[in-house]
Amino acid sequence: MEKIPVSKAMTARTWFLTGASRGLGAHWAEAILARGDRLAATARDKAALASLSERYGDRFLPLQLDVRDSTAVRDAVQSAEGTFGGIDVLVNNAGHMLIGAVEEVEEEQARAQMDVNYFGALWATRAVLPGMRERRAGRVLQVSSLGGLVAYPALGIYQASKWALEAMSESLAAEVAAYGIHVTLIEPVMFPTGLAAESPQARQDPAYAHARQALYAGAGASGLTPGDPAATAEALLALVDTPEPPMRVLFGTGGLEALRTEYSGRLAGLEQWDHVARLAQGKPSGS
Questions:
Q1: Sign of the CA dihedral 97, 67, 184, 47?
Q2: For residue 61, which of 36, 40, 168, 212 is within the disulfide window of CB 3.0 to 4.6 Å?
Q3: Which residues contact 105 (CB under 8 A, 6 or more apart)?
Q4: Of these residues, 144, 145, 161, 169, which one is catalytic?
């Protein structure tokens, strides 16, 4: 008897995917629909999703959405639930990458970065949770970054938005596990998606030319090899089909080595300054 692939053996799921019109999201939307699942997909311009509507009909719900608008996010989720009867998988993928040193970034740019990458994911997550809790099942996939675990010069505000997403999601995972809801942080390493080129950029102050040079020099010397964005779709489907998914998973290679270096350095620094930690502790009361 022919063995049925896992993805085909599964009952069709309903997905809600933000940022579906370009980059990784576009590949994921295609793969989700191609395997027979239902998909509610969002983009800031719904017209960019027209080809999917033509090919997949009533299994596809295109939604125009700016994830910064919490009310609009809630309405979009309710529309998807009303159309498909519930959301099994949320993928918070919408985002942009602000490049600039901390002093170079304007206030409105910093707020916009957090509004899209962190608050947008927060609003969508909060919107799907009541339905998932009621059904006692669900998957929340947060698209973070290797930069959600390591910070580099000239990316501080972008990576701050991802670090916030990491912390919120780790707490969330502990809060909703009792309801059969799994939370996973996807950490893409390096993929040529045009994200940086399509994102707003900070003004460049000559005082921080060295920071930008360090960023690009570090990227060139890191040994990280750009991955194939299309291949991430297969990884995404495999992740969702896993009965017990991980809290975090890297997409792409080279990230483990970078993290080993980062975390060993952090521990070494904390150990070196443990005498100050003990000084701050003070003496036990009564001693």
A1: negative
A2: 40
A3: 98, 113, 156, 157, 202
A4: 144
pTM above 0.85, yes or no: yes
Residue 7 is among the residues annotated as catalytic for this protein: no
Tens-digit pLDDT profile for residues 168-222: 999 999 999 999 999 999 999 999 888 878 888 899 999 999 998 888 776 655 6
Among 252, 240, 250, 232, residue whose Cα is nearest residue 30? 232
**Residue among 56, 158, 161, 169 flagged as catalytic:** 158
As a whole number, the mean pLDDT across the chain is 93
Catalytic-role residue among 21, 145, 161, 162: 162
pLDDT in tens, 40-92: 999 999 999 999 999 999 999 999 999 999 999 999 999 999 999 999 999 99
Pairing of strands 38-43, 14-17: parallel
List the structure tokens of 185: 């942080």
Residue 144 designated active-site: yes
Could you tell me the CATH superfamily of domain 6-255? Answer: NAD(P)-binding Rossmann-like Domain (3.40.50.720)
Angstrom distances, CA of residue 204 to CA of 19, 195, 208, 254, 265: 28, 19, 7, 30, 30
